[in-house]
């Protein structure tokens, strides 16, 4: 076979291109003409009394031939279209792509090729150009493809994932064929000799078969799964189905690969369980949920992943009951949405260094509200503009600071202070940062004068109709919740509101 553009790419080809074994093209040409190029012509020249079959070569000219009439080659008996040598044949062409495997030592090589058939000279001429080269053994799997862009200049690109090169030109629509006549010889004596790939070739499309060879070279587990009849798991892997983590592909022992008991393995094979189905079953089983491999696992994947990721914090069945309860308490709150929100909430709690050993934080009564608060806190930590707004607001309200006896009160100066206050006392003030920055509310800290840096009570105050009003005042431990302020704290707050906050400017007391 001739080449059209190969010289352009050979000058800067990757190393594996030079490693390719020499290719015997005669059997490939016969295969192409007999099995691939469906257009069969018999070109005849009546004055010269000659004829050439595009399938088998020179033949005796049949009697009663006529241009464009259907007939039969007298030599190979192929169904042909008669074409007169004196009539133009410029548009008589065909194009395909072929996948060819070869071997060298214990390594398997493959190439994808453009093949162009030109019938314009009264006989078929074949042109072949390589557009992808691949190398497979246990130690390495490599793939390179050419770029046929106008400005690329014959560039080779290394593939991140082994695949048949995708083409957007007319060649992208050309059918792809696998040359399979030599496959038994190719895989014998190589690292893939026990994988039974030659026998499997007819079961897969050529582009999928190339991926299958790559998987067998990469993971010995593929061979083991095939031999015990779990090809449906391999197929799930090849098509990119979710659930690949359910199989430990790098292991070589079947029990370690699947982590299933023998009865479970038998049932998985009978049910032709997919990767996603296997992953659902294994997570549900390991979380102690009632599940059977013979039945479709009804648990939502987002719920299962949340149970698994949080099992060091809380027993999975207990968390599942909590998620179900949250779904029931909020209108339109779906089970998978609850699970996603809870997973995000726990991540945010960890980022904010909240105490997850506190049940009120680990399992908040209203997950939606708790998640909104932690999201706001995380956002503020990363938002310098909001932090600056809180600082400016605090500067304006410092005049409301007050001390009397063993207690003092002051404005929260920064977003970090507000978040830290909630973390140390164990309440939700950290979620109010957004409101403080926007000017919708104000946060003050009540401290003991002897311990001015230790959180004691946190007060929220809003301005309505020109006058400030206390919304709530919460402490930690036994002082959590509204209406539980000790008498001295309540008296202190009342005095502060009367003499400082809502007092006329001339009568307002200053901080002692």
Automatic annotation (TrEMBL):
InterPro entries (alphabetical): PcfJ
Pfam families linked to this entry: PcfJ
Top-level taxonomic group: Bacteria
Annotated protein name in UniProt: PcfJ-like protein
Source species of the chain: Aminipila butyrica
